[in-house]
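Hi there,

I know you've been waiting on this one. I reran it after we fixed the sequence typo, so this is the corrected version. Both the input and the resulting structure follow.
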Amino acid sequence: MIIWVNGAFGAGKTSAARDMLDLIPASTLYEPEVFGGCLRQLLPERQLREVTDYQESPTWRRLVVETACSLLNEVGGVLIAPMTLLRQDHRDEIFGGLAARGIEVRHVLLDPGETILRERIALRRDHPDDERADDTARCWALDRIADYRQALPWLTLDAYVLPTAGLTARQTAEAVCEAVGSGAGVCGIVQTPAPRAETVAAGVLLFDDDDRVLLVDPTYKPGWEFPGGIVERGESPVRAGHREVAEELGIELTRGLELLVVDWEPPQPPGHGGLRLIFDGGRVPTADIARVLLPDAELRDWRFVTEDEAAGLLPPLRLDRLRWALRAREQGRPLNLEAGHPAQ
């Protein structure tokens, strides 16, 4: 298990986490922040210039997942991770990666209130011998409060929120342990095992009467997606499409699926790639739209969007796949793609 202690800079995460070590048997402090320093040594200079925050680096997020898995294999017990995590897509990628490896996550948010946050940041001394460095660090932390406020709507829905105003670090640690012990903070992500080889996946495009396409927002990976998933052993892609739509939306498709796109996704570590098939599932009756029911452990939202609106939701490769699938639907013939573009 990992207890992810979240909160703004100055919320007291690390102090509380260190006290939690005394309260939870067989627990280990796990600080993903240390990978920021590693990246400065590992990444080429040109990539470092493009990253203003090390959490924006995909390498950092992968290191967090893989190191947690390796550490738990070696030491077992509970990892306590005091780490600010304010972007929901980063949360999805990290927690989804941990869930895919069978690691349970408890998500706790420490909330002392903005007034106390500002007071703590003003008094912070990280560089006792360098006042200029301290001033820079304090300004940076104060600037992040706006990011914290912006993240609160999804954080308060996702994490167990612990008000900590007036609590010492020890009292905060005790309150976190008590909450987690009573089952709070469970991160209910579906634990889909990470593929170990190439896979075949089937996606289904569903449309409303305005020809908008239905997208869903997974809890276990960043960006939106069309309904669908991995074709199981001994299952046909069309059957997989029907099954996934029923599982994800509660809609039983009665018509066949028309193939729009076959896309070969090349292996790109840590992914193994494989074939991605996109089918036309037709228009969804209004009555079925009204009955859409999402599995909370997998999906948090759905909506019908235009192609232009999809551009703001889908990651680049999925967007390319969608655009060519829509062109294939217009032309009435399937298209063969490689990495999201027509094969040469």
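Quick highlight: The CA atoms of residues 100 and 192 lie 5 Å apart.

Best,
R. S.
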